[in-house]
Specification:
The complex is a heterodimer of chains A (267) and B (302).
Chain A lengths: L7 H26 L5 H19 L3 H21 L4 H22 L4 H9 L7 H20 L1 H9 L1 H6 L4 H23 L1 H18 L3 H26 L3 H23 L2
Chain B lengths: L1 H23 L7 E5 L2 H11 L3 E5 L14 H8 L3 E4 L6 H7 L9 E4 L8 E2 L2 E2 L7 H18 L4 H25 L7 E6 L3 H7 L2 E6 L9 H13 L4 E5 L5 H10 L2 E5 L7 H6 L3 H15 L7
Parallel strand pairs in B: 1-2, 1-3, 3-4, 7-8, 7-9, 9-10
Antiparallel strand pairs in B: 5-6
The chains are: A mainly alpha (267), B alpha/beta (302).
């Protein structure tokens, strides 16, 4: 038995990290297909503003972060309907959220120490409450995705004909974005913004590149994400480097490997 | 049209200039204005200055000084000051450059309270947490007094008197710590950050910090595992949490080892509520002593 698992904090890092990776990488496949790979990053920064507001108003910061990111997700959807491109909408809200957080933090006279864990949440310091939250809310999110799976799939690939065949595309899109918002906020507290955005973007990009079907892409994305968590945590433990950084390195390596593999597959 | 606009802009900027130069005009120059970088330095400077000088803290109460980000109003306030007192040893390095620009160097006196104090160097950086040693704090008080007396020579007598009293209080505190911590069963002080270097140098404890000198440092997985092992091997019985700092890693170690969580106030800052209640350096150091006596299992009676 590896001595790495004798520590409760390492067990929780593996459990929490892999759960967050599964959740984010699944949502990621839907988002990357819609060219919204940066959506997670954007939402995470907006919820940073939400966390700061929560700390300032002395309400539970995760709740205000969730409210902020759900509102932002819906706003992005509305802005898109107003013919503002998705990436521009994300860029605008991204800067706004971050700036709001910084302004609120400086106005309050400082709660830096309380804010940092939300921004850089550490995979080595996952609490039991975090773990429980990600199991419950993450499970619900995945269940919701599964129950609307067919319609979401249709709408993701071909919005026009989905709309023509009577699928409520707008409502489905809104649902997807709200689920993504929940996923981002929840995972951010557990693993931090850096990991959330890479869990959303990288495994899905690799998986979509290598897979022949959507189901296959979902599975590949989940496998890449969780394997990278495991590899990164092992490297972090045995080489004494930052765990979050090592996980993203593992994801980037997987991406590079997929480029090579892809070349051989598609001449 | 552009002409009117230009005239308007000119008038507006003159107005602004007029207002700001008025605001910057010398306030009643009766008392010396002393800017202390953060809490312990503020506390010492205030103790020495008494009523004779106005002392304020640049880092607001309740803000962790490693994470302080000065605002333009902080810079403006500093322009009114006659003397800037720093803890030194690198403590203010991250933000002081943004606050005291070159053009001010001539007028503003800057004093380094760590002058002449032998610094502990750990992994290439100086340990700034001098104030936690009541013995070395007396030297800081001496340095601050000299700076005040040089900035305001007429007040020297008053400053000497106040500083003397303040040093005696610190010496009494030092003696109390020395006595109380001389008979402890445990010597290893497991704590969130490397803040007790000078403290342990005085009282013979062995610091086991989870994170480094700065509150922004994060331990790696292997470092956490190493600390857990150390705590088990050395039979440590308590873990000390510092206020104002990120507690997550201390919580991890505490959960992992089942050690008793106790608090240690490293006095980087006090809350505005504590300030209002008149609780400060001496009160918190006394609390630290009680907490250490519990965690290090000290028995004065025997």
């Amino acid at each position: 038995m590896l001595d790495i698992f004798q520590y409760a904090f390492m067990q929780k890092a593996f459990a929490g990290g892999i759960l967050a990776a599964l959740l984010c990488s699944t949502i990621g496949v839907f988002l990357v297909l819609r060219r919204m790979a940066l959506f997670g990053d954007g939402l995470a920064h907006i919820s940073f503003g939400g966390v700061a507001a929560g700390l300032l108003l002395k309400i539970y910061p995760l709740a205000s972060a969730l409210a902020f990111s759900v509102i932002a997700a819906i706003s992005i959807q509305k802005l898109k309907q107003m013919k503002i491109r998705g990436d521009s909408a994300i860029a605008v809200l991204f800067s706004f959220g971050l700036a709001l957080g910084v302004v609120l933090a400086s106005a309050s006279g400082g709660f830096g120490a309380d804010l940092m864990p939300y921004l850089f949440g550490s995979i080595l310091a996952i609490s039991d409450a975090d773990l429980l939250a990600i199991i419950l809310i993450g499970g619900t999110t995945l269940a919701a995705l599964a129950s609307f799976y067919r319609q979401l799939l249709y709408a993701s690939f071909d919005e026009e004909s989905a709309r023509a065949s009577g699928i409520p595309v707008e409502r489905l899109n809104a649902l997807l974005l709200v689920l993504a918002a929940i996923t981002v906020v929840l995972s951010m507290k557990v693993v931090g913004i850096l990991l959330v955005s890479s869990f959303i973007a990288i495994p899905a990009t690799i998986a979509i590149r290598l897979s022949k079907s959507f189901t296959q892409a979902l599975a590949a994305s989940a496998i890449v994400a969780s394997a990278s968590v495991a590899a990164g945590l092992l490297a972090a433990y045995y080489f004494g480097v930052s765990a979050g950084g090592a996980i993203v390195m593992a994801l980037a390596l997987a991406f590079a490997a997929s480029l090579l593999a892809g070349k051989e597959g598609n001449p | 049209m552009p002409k009117t606009l230009a005239a308007f802009a000119l008038a507006f900027s003159l107005l602004i200039y007029g207002c700001s130069s008025q605001a910057q005009g010398e306030p009643q120059k009766s008392r010396l204005v002393v800017a202390a970088s953060f809490y312990p330095i503020y506390e010492f400077a205030k103790g020495i200055a008494g009523e004779r000088a106005h002392v304020y803290s640049i880092v607001p109460f309740g803000v962790e000084p490693h994470e302080f980000e000065p605002s333009p109003s902080d810079a403006k306030r500093l322009r009114q000051a006659d003397l800037l007192v720093l803890n030194g040893a690198g403590m203010e390095l991250a933000w002081i450059g943004k606050l005291a620009p070159e053009d001010q160097k001539g007028r503003l006196r800057i004093a380094d309270a760590s002058e002449g104090i032998p610094l502990i160097i750990s992994q290439g950086s100086a340990d700034p947490h001098i104030w936690l040693s009541p013995k070395l704090a007396q030297m800081q008080v001496e340095n601050i007094k000299e700076a005040l007396a040089q900035a305001d020579p007429e007040g020297r007598e008053q400053y000497e008197k106040n500083a003397g009293e303040y040093r005696r209080r610190l010496a009494k505190l030092d003696a109390k710590f020395r006595q109380a911590l001389s008979a402890c069963k445990k010597r290893d002080l497991l704590i969130t950050h490397a803040t007790v270097g000078y403290f342990c140098q005085d009282y013979g404890c062995n610091p086991v910090p989870i994170s480094g000198l700065s509150h922004a440092d994060e331990p790696s997985a292997s470092k956490l595992a190493e600390i857990v092992e150390l705590a088990r091997q050395k039979n440590i019985s308590a873990i000390y949490f510092e206020s104002l700092s990120d507690q997550r890693f201390a919580e991890v170690v505490s959960k992992e080892t089942g050690l008793k969580p106790l608090s240690f106030n490293s006095l980087h800052g006090i809350s505005p509520e504590d300030e209002a209640k008149g609780r400060g350096y001496f009160e918190f150091m006394e609390e630290n002593l009680e907490s250490l006596k519990e965690g290090l299992e000290c028995d004065e009676g025997s």
